[in-house]
Every structure is written in C-alpha cells, then in structure tokens.
Specification:
Blueprint: H1 27-40, E1 67-69, E2 72-81, E3 86-92, H2 93-99, E4 106-113, E5 116-124, E6 137-141, E7 146-151, H3 156-160, E8 168-174
Antiparallel strand pairs: 1-2, 2-3, 2-8, 3-7, 4-5, 4-8, 6-7
Length: about 180
Amino acid sequence: KFHGVEEVRMIDYANRRPTSEGSAVFDGRDLFGYNAARLAAGQISFEELGPEYPAEEIVMIDMPKAHSEEGMVSGYFEIVDPNFGNMWSNILAEDFEHAGFEYGEELVLKVEHEGETVLEKAMPYCKAFGDVKKGEPLLYTNELLHVSAALSEGSMLEEYKLGFGPEWKVEIRRK
C-alpha cells in the first residue's frame, strides 16, 4: 500500500496523447492529463495505463510546511518562475491573511541559504507589478495563490543570486 492506495501504475509512453510523440516537454498535458481524461471517460482501464509500479520503490521527500503567526510568515522558495526570475514560495496567500498582512503594506523579506542570510530587504506587498517602479522589488500573490518575490521588469533570481529548494528559507515580517 502507498498512502492508502492499493496499486500504483507507471503510465506507458505508448499511451501518450496522439501526435505528441518525440517530446517529453509537456508530460503533464500529453501523458498525465490525457490519461486522466481517458480514465474519467471510461475509455481506458487503470490496468491498461501501464505496468504496476512497486510501491516500495517510491521515495517520499519530506518538504517543510509554511508557518504563519501574527506579523510573520516563514517557508522556503519552492520554485523559480523560469521565464521571469520570480521566486515562488510555499507560503499560501491564506498564510499571509493569518499573519494579518494586507496589500500595500511594507514588509521585510529575509532569505537564508543553508543558515546564512543572503538577503534582507524591505518591499511592498502588491496586487500588481505596476504598483512599483521598474526594477523595484515586490511581494505578490502568484496564480497558484502562493506568495512570491519579484523585481518589476527584472529578475529577482539573477539580481540577488537566489535559488530554490528547502535550503532556501524565507521569512517575511513587518518592519
């Protein structure tokens, strides 16, 4: 059993979305989404997806959860928006609400990498990038409803030499 699931299957690449052969760039769409729709529509059985995968070979990675309290939230940068260099955290918008933060408020972003502070900077929590001048930093809620850090018309990743993963701890607090 794996998290209460009796059986795990590895989707066979022969079950890809037609005309998507030769590329694995959009597996979410061409393999996973396509077969989820086929399963939901009754066009394929679970067993037809591909071979059974041994549950004992699945490796679980314990990812830290975000934490919030009045006037402070903490988490980590879980991914970089590769097109723009925006730093996406695992901190949810609801964590910000729990901390009492509001749009327009000036907050302090502190970033630690492996225990060393690499950035501590005041910036506003904004609804839109247009709320700050070109090149200025901001905190915003991304399309996944996670709190993110960015530079308006710039790359937070490159400007501050940041990275992502559980070792890139983030704390946001009032000034």
